[in-house]
Amino acid sequence: MRLPLKGIHVNPASATGRPDRYADDALWQEQAGYSRAARRGNLIAVSGTTASAPDGTAEALGDTRAQTADAIARCLRAVQALGGTVDDVYRTRVYLAPEADWRGAAQAHRDAFAAVAPANTMLHVAGMIGDGLLVEVEVEALVQDEQVPA
User: Fold this and answer.
1) pLDDT computed for residue 11 by the predictor
2) CATH superfamily of 7-142
3) pTM higher than 0.90
4) Other Cβ atoms closer than 10 A to 62
5) Residue-wise DSSP of 45-67
6) If 139 and its partner were Cys, which of 25, 34, 47, 75 is the partner (CB 3.0–4.6 Å)?
7) What is the pLDDT of residue 10?
8) pLDDT score at 16
9) What is the pLDDT of residue 4?
10) What residues form DSSP beta bridges with 141?
11) Where are the domains of the chain?
């Protein structure tokens, strides 16, 4: 099954009829065969997300905080597209390139999630795929049954 390049996908076999996949305009999804986010029952998993333009180039070069804020915003759009809210986020992971500023990433995470305070892991990794990318964010959410996307 091929997903649309951008938008929400409803699996015809889904008993609920609610969207179960979301793709944004990131080049990487088509190249690697994945969705920005997937929903199974009440769980939403958002794939590793970076601050990259549709052509894959990094945005906010050299600014860890701005890249983190952008990646989180993209993750939250995916959660919302599949029927969740920021309040449903229970786990985040933040991967940092060696040259990334962990304090900037932490500040952007706090700005987005302070009221929710999800479980979080933040760590430096050997590097990112894509020149200029400093951070990649993953999000997991548990949606209440009554929340169904419009």
Assistant:
1) 60
2) RutC-like (3.30.1330.40)
3) no
4) 12
5) EEEEE-SB-TTSPBSSTT-HHHH
6) 75
7) 56
8) 64
9) 47
10) 44, 89
11) 7-142
Non-local CB neighbours of 38 within 8 Å, separated by 6+ positions: 20, 21, 22, 44, 45, 82
Torsion sign (Cα): 94, 22, 51, 104:
negative
How many Cα atoms occupy the beta-carbon half-sphere of 45 within 13 Å?
7
- CB neighbours of residue 58 within 10 Å: 20
pLDDT of residue 55: 87
Contacts of 78 (CB under 8 A, 6+ apart): 22, 24, 36, 37, 44, 46, 49, 139
Q: Which of 98, 85, 93 is nearest to 119 (CA)?
A: 93
Residue segments in the chain with a per-residue pLDDT below the cut of 50: 1-5, 13, 147
Q: How far is CA 120 from the centre of its chain?
A: 14
Side chain identity at residue 36, one-letter code: R
Closest CA to 36 of 50, 22, 56, 19: 22
- Please say whether the beta carbons of 5 and 23 come within 8 A: yes
Structure tokens belonging to residue 116: 């929710």
3-state secondary structure of 112: helix
